[in-house]
Structure formats: structure tokens, C-alpha cells
Amino acid sequence: MTVARILAEKGGSVVTVEPQRTLDEAIHLLAEKRIGAIVVSNDEGAVLGILSERDIIRALSRQGAGAFDAPISQHMTATVTTCTRASTVEEVMQLMTDGRFRHVPVVEDGRLAGLVSIGDVVKRRIAAVEAEHQAMRDYITMA
């Protein structure tokens, strides 16, 4: 299964924020949308960074309450690992495992095209394993 199929099922809508917005604004947006990370992008749709719950905790640990008024650009992860629609679920799982993160932006032609979370990947992987098991059971009962 590819990322394109995941996006076809879940949609390509991604919550984004501008880098000059404050950390406080980002926290409220994450809470409102009930999500764990937000993509930082510009008006052209280029991925400039990603801000996760972990980034927020690190910012608060370093600066305390003063971090709330700082721009997101000071606390986001600026080096973002991305994938494409053609990436496989296995490739994305490996990226997440190696990088120890739970969200991977999907980029096509330099523009944000979607976001894949660990939940998306696990859901599809479990469905594939269950389908394989069912195929094996069917094969055994037919033999």
C-alpha cells in the first residue's frame, strides 16, 4: 500500500500554521483540532517545519512560560523528513522508526500534499496483516 492510497481514504487536508505565529496560538490550535503535530508552512505550501507536542514540551522546559509568546519558528523542528504519494507504508514506517517521530508530511513538487501519522500507518498495516491471515485460512480450508 502506498501513501497515495492512505490519502485517498483519509483525505489530504492538513492543519498548517505560519512560522511567525506564537507558540501559544499553536497550542490552542492543536487542542482545538485534537491533533499532536502541526505543519509549519508558507503561503506557497512549502513545508518550513513541523511543531509537535514534544517540541512544545522542550520549549517549555528551556524557557518556561516565556516560550508561549515566542514565534513557532524558534521551537519547530526545521529539518523535516517527508515522503511522497508513491512512498510505501513500509518505507514510512521505517522513516518513523529511524527518526523517532509520529508524523510525516507528504510533499509533491515542493508543496504539502498531506500528512501521514503513525495511526494511519498502523491502521493500514493491521488491515493488511488481517487480510493475509484470512487468505491463509481460506487457502487451508480449501485444501
Share in β-strands: 15-25%
Mean pLDDT across all amino acids: 93
State the helicity in percent bands.
40-55%
Poorly predicted runs: none
Q: Strand arrangement, largest sheet?
A: 1-2-3
Give, in order, the helices and strands. Answer: HEHEEHHEEH
| DSSP, total strands | 5
Based on the structure, what is the oligomeric state of the protein chains? Answer: single chain
| N- to C-terminal distance | 29 Å
Largest sheet: 3 strands, mixed
Approximate shape: elongated
Q: Structural class per helix/strand content?
A: alpha+beta
The Cα radius of gyration reads 18 Å
Number of alpha- plus pi-helical segments: 5
Molecular structure report:
- The protein contains 5 helices and 5 strands.
- The chain is of the alpha+beta class and 143 residues long.
- The strands form 2 sheets. A 3-stranded mixed beta sheet has the order 1-2-3. Strands 4-5 form a two-stranded antiparallel ribbon.
- A hairpin with a 2-residue loop joins β4 (103-108) and β5 (111-117).
- α4 (89-99) crosses α5 (118-142).
- The chain is elongated, with a radius of gyration of 18 Å.
